[in-house]
Predict the 3D structure of the following.
Amino acid sequence: MTGYPAPLARVIEQLSRLPGIGEKTAGRLAFFLLKEGKESVLALAGSMERLKREMGLCPQCFGLSEIPAGTEEVAPCRVCRDPGRDNHTICVVEEPSDLMAVERSGEYKGLYHVLHGAIFPLNGVGPDALKIKELMARVRAHPPVEIIVATNATRAGDATALYLAKMVKPLDIRITRIARGLPMGGEIEYTDAGTLGEALDGRREL
Amino acid sequence: MTGYPAPLARVIEQLSRLPGIGEKTAGRLAFFLLKEGKESVLALAGSMERLKREMGLCPQCFGLSEIPAGTEEVAPCRVCRDPGRDNHTICVVEEPSDLMAVERSGEYKGLYHVLHGAIFPLNGVGPDALKIKELMARVRAHPPVEIIVATNATRAGDATALYLAKMVKPLDIRITRIARGLPMGGEIEYTDAGTLGEALDGRREL
């Protein structure tokens, strides 16, 4: 970033630390911010600061929860607070964004548990790096009827599901995994062999 | 952004106003910021705030210039302040980023003038929207020996160059435009017809 004035070089350096944003894109964004009105840049910067100040993890499910204004402590999240949710079912997901995706499906009325990752030994992520201890403590304190594992259909997601099954089985709690198969609108011709194999394997009576 | 907590929805909305960043990418970035350490997010936000607080336009060339700490006024930029620069030549560019690109070439030792755009009547950008009045005032006050027009090789860049030529000619100042032709490493086979035509047209004695 030779020749860039310091404030510009600083923004480019900071922006290029974001995922998927290289130095070139960072430069383009920085010049955009230079041209933008002061208010709208301050609104962007302010929204980031508020994100870190106002968002925390729910002490029960580790999903996202807001920090009420004037306090430091994170309140239980909207789902955990909702008396209308079925608290006999816990859906285990990898990330807060997965929780939101399941919520958007509108199909699920139980509670959640967010692991904050998946077991991936190659990257040094073992069970201890995830919120698995917390899940087990929660499950032992208030045993649910069913645990639905909604980790990704990836190696790490599979490894995590298997590990959870092994941990939960002795507790005599039902543990299931969400189905795999063709996505909605999926065409046989363009579906990869792995997915087709799993779709065949998981076939159901009509 | 249904179902997103307000601080998260706010960041996504702000980020998706950036060029080339849609709502999906904005969401991905927002979740990245959620996971990032507080310090590094505050550093990013702070760098944007400082960008708007510490950068202004040079009162002479309208390139970027820093606002010295503790003042409100923009100082002349590094190039305009440099007594070693040749002040008999002014290179006219469209944007501050173009000025920096010319600086990086290391080939130019004169001064600059940044127009902040190019004439593009279809988008309603006429000469008055650019720093052309300021250029003419500057040129009349201290006539340079040469004005080098380094606008883009686009229709708008061409229109701007022609307009400047018409304005400057009566002042009896030499006005030139940077050369067009094959870029370094360019291969004839893969060069578009327009560029090849201009390269032939601009051929020089060996």
About this structure: Chain B is about 40% helix and 15% strand.
